[in-house]
Each structure stands twice: as structure tokens, then as C-alpha cells.
Amino acid sequence: MARTVVAFGEDDLRALAGARSFERGLGYLDAVRGLEVGESSVTAVVHGTDVYEVELTIGGGEAISGWCDCPYGQEGNFCKHRVAVGLTVLRRAQTIPHQRAAARARASGLEAWLSQLSRDELLALVRERIAEDRELRRCLELRAAAARSDLGTVRDRIIALIDPRPFARYGCVEYADASGYARQVAEAAAALRALTADGQAARAVGLAEEAIRVLGEAYGEIDDSDGVVGEAAAAVAEAHLGACQVARPDPDRLAEWLVGHVLGDDSEVTDLDPLDYGDVLGPSGLARMRQLAAEARRRRPSGWAERYLMERLVKVEGDVDALVALYAQDLDPSGSTHLRIAEELESAGRADEALAWAERGLRDCAAEAHIDGRLVDHVYLRYAEAGRAADAVAVRRDRFRIERSLAAYRKLRSAAQAAERWEAERVAALAALREDALRERGGWYGGPVLIDALFDDGDVDAAWREAAGFADDRQWEQLAGLSRETHPAEALAVYLRLVERLKEPTGDRAYERLVRLLLGARDCHRALGTQEAFTEYLAGLRTELKRRRKLMSILDRYGL
């Protein structure tokens, strides 16, 4: 029943959060408060180290998503608080349709009630709210000042909203205060839009530019980890563009401001693209911008902002040769610039020149350990499309010689199989990986690529032969997992050896891995018909580690 009401289940939550966060989320079920159901989402607060707000999608046929304002959740992770809210929704799934219907009824009832109020009653309601809600009062005050053309008041209020000093308790705007500051910046953006709508677009242009300057100067001292201030600043930039589209300021003056902003130290906060103003600038403004960009480029040829601005202007002019010449002045050692040139030429229908540039990129970057993989893929695909199978394999082989990774091995295998020459290529590739393993014996982080390549080939027998002296614990565990049915005795020896190493570490992660190893050992004993030996071994282990109550609880949960 729950599957038809919400768009996820417990397995989805576990997969998104991982075993650790899922288990921790179970402990927060009693901490979920204020669950509110909307049309396709739910919101709630979860009481943990702090009180965190959570929102989850629960319908609409889309994958589960949402957010939590805890530090771990704001890094993009599916945190324990989201798990707790998701599990709460699943446990109340039968009531979700009723709660949705109730929410719709409340919204409809509110709309009907507001429609019936008289003018005096609505005014009384607004006055009541602005007496209690400072943010709403400031918003309406700005709208009122703009409506009566009190531009001095409007400017003072907008600059006050942008001013970060009231939020900089210790000389900077800390993470906890960033969202409050962002709300004020968003208010300023709304006031600028209202000013334009009320026929004061020219004034809005100047105020927006002043606001953008203040934001740029302050942004370096703001902890905007979740990007809320940046989003609000982008709204100010959009208000500036909207005002320019209405007011049509002098093109040359606007071009000078845009170039100054892009090349200045305060451009990061708005990420403003001057070409969005193309219609406002017109031919004369674009020409002035090109002139200023060229002068700036001559003064500082290596400047990133100067190069970006010139590239954007040349690109909009559609002069491919000029763009190629500009790119060619500063070729990146990774080959990424060669690829950009190839893509531009290919888009212009000049395929031969495009391939020549891409091939040059491979030659120029042949000895680089870190090359843009897209360049390698580009050349490989062009060779494959042209039926140049030998050349396509050579591209993958040459890259594998420099980058001895599992990803490079897989790409070589795919190319060689397509060309029906994998057997010979595999022998040479594995020989190279074996040399690496011998040279770096014991120095690998994550184990040698040789073992992972054999796993990827499905050659478990060869992996057993190569593992001794090379494989790390992760690879031994993977090898045992692949061999529980075919080589149960050898796999059991691996599991028991790894269990011994995990007797000392503590914590949820170590305990979860220990359980995983014990489950594997149990499967091996079953395959060998020695279940009694496992029961005896497990009893001894529990006695040895009995003081670790959390571990005992996890063992019980898994039936061990």
C-alpha cells in the first residue's frame, strides 16, 4: 500500500544514506516533530545536536530527493535526519492521502476567506502582520516608498539591506548568519524589481550597480557554504539586467561598467555574463566592450578574467579562426584547450582540422600523467567512427601506458575487443600491471590495479594466483566473496584472517565490516558442511568481545 502512496521505500532510504546513516536514522524516529504533508513533499523538524529542518519528496513518480540544513546534509549527503523523516512517512503512509486532502482544503479555505474580507478588514490584517513580522514590514515599506517616488528612502533601505555589518558579529558573516543575510539581499532584489515596475528603471540600474559593488566587497568575508547568498546576489544581478532592458542606458557607459565588473575583484558573487546584455548594448556597446577587453588582455595576457571576457566576445561574433587563435595562445598541458579548439572547428563543419588539433593535443600531452580524458575519448571515437580500428586501439594503449588505472584498462579492453585483438593486448597489459605490482609491493593504497583488473575480467582463478604478496584487505575480502561457493576452504581462511585484524578497532564502521566478514565465514562453513565449527567459533568470539555492547547488539540484529 505504501508504495502507491509515496515514491520510495526503506530500501531506497538505505541505498541513498548508506548503512551507517540509515542505522543512525533509526535512532531519531522519536525526534521527528511537526510533520506537514504537501502535494508532493513533506516537511518536518528533527531534534538532534540542534533543531534541523528537513524536506522530502514523497510522490510524483520522481526519485526521492529533498534537503536538510544540518552540516552533513548541506554537503549534499543523505543524512540521518532525512532517513528519520523518510521512515516516519513510511510508518504513516496510510494517513498520507488524508493529510494531502486536508492541506488542499486548508489552502482553499484560506483563499475563500481572504476573498470575502472587506478592504478595512484586509488592511487590519496586514497591519497586524507587519507589527509582528519585521521582514514583511521592510518589504512593504520599500514598495510604498517606490510607489510615491521617494527615491532617497528607497536607496537608503536597499543599501541597508545589502550591508553585511549587522550580521558580522566577529568581523565576518558566519555560516549560521548567512541565510539571514541572504534573505535581506533577496528583499533588496525584490525592491529593485518593484522600482523598475513602478517606472523608475533608470534609478534601479544605478542602485543595483551600487548593491552589486557592496556585495562583491563583502562576499569574501561571508561563509556561504550552501550558496544562499550567491543565489540572492544572482537575483540582484537579474534585477539589474531587467532594469537595463527597460531603461536602455547609454551603451558605452554600460559596456564600461560590465567590463569593470567582470575584471574586478568583486565579480565572483554574481557570476554575471556580459553577453546577457547584448540586446541592450547593441553594436556600439559590444564594439566598446571588445575594445576594452582587448586593452585589458594586452595589459595582463595571463589574466583569467581577461581571457574569459575576450573568449566570450569573440565567440558571440562567430569568428571561428579568431577564437582558435585566442585559444591557441594559452594551451593547457592537460589537453583541454586542444579539445575546445577541436570542438569549435567540428561545430563549424571543419572535421579534418578538428581531428588534427585533437591529435596534436595527444602528442603535446603524451607524457602528462593527468590528461583530459575527454580529449582521449574524442580522438578514439573519431577513429572508431572512421573504421580506423588499429589507431583506435593505439590511442587507448598509449594512454594505458601512462595511466595504469582500472578505468584505463577497461577502455583498452573495450577498444581491443571491438577490434578483435584483446587476447594479445590483455597479455601485454597484465604484464605491465604485474611489473607495477612488483615494483610497488606493499606501497599501494587500495591494492594493486592488477588484482582489480583480474576481478573486472572475471578471472577469479588468476586473481587467486596473483593475490599472494600483492592484494590488500579489500581485495582479499572481494576475492573471498567471489569464491565462497567454488573455493570455500580458501575463502574461509581469508575471512578468519581478516576477522582477527578487526578485533581491535571499534566504532560502527568497524563493527559493520566485522559482521560482513562473519556472514561470509558462515556461508563458507555451510558450503563445507561444518556449521558446528562456526557456531563454536562465533561463541568464542562473542565471549572475547562481550564488553562491546554496541557490537553485541549488531551481531544480534544479524542473527550472529
What's the gyration radius in Å? 32 Å
Structural class from helices and strands? mainly alpha
Helix content: 55-70%
- Oligomeric organization of the protein chains: single chain
What does this structure look like?
There is one protein chain. With 560 residues, this protein is mainly alpha-helical. Helices cover 69% and strands 4% of the residues. The chain contains 28 helices and 4 strands. The chain has helices spanning 2-5, 10-26, 71-74, 80-91, 96-116, 119-132, 134-147, 151-162, 175-197, 201-219, 228-247, 251-263, 278-299, 304-317, 320-328, 336-347, 351-364, 373-385, 389-402, 406-418, 422-439, 449-457, 460-467, 473-483, 488-501, 508-528, 531-544, 549-557; strands at 32-37, 41-47, 51-57, 66-68. A 4-stranded antiparallel sheet has the order 1-2-3-4. Helix 8 runs parallel beside helix 10, helix 9 runs antiparallel to helix 10 and helix 13 (278-299) packs across helix 14. The longest helix has 23 residues, at 175-197. The model has no long low-confidence stretch (mean pLDDT 86).
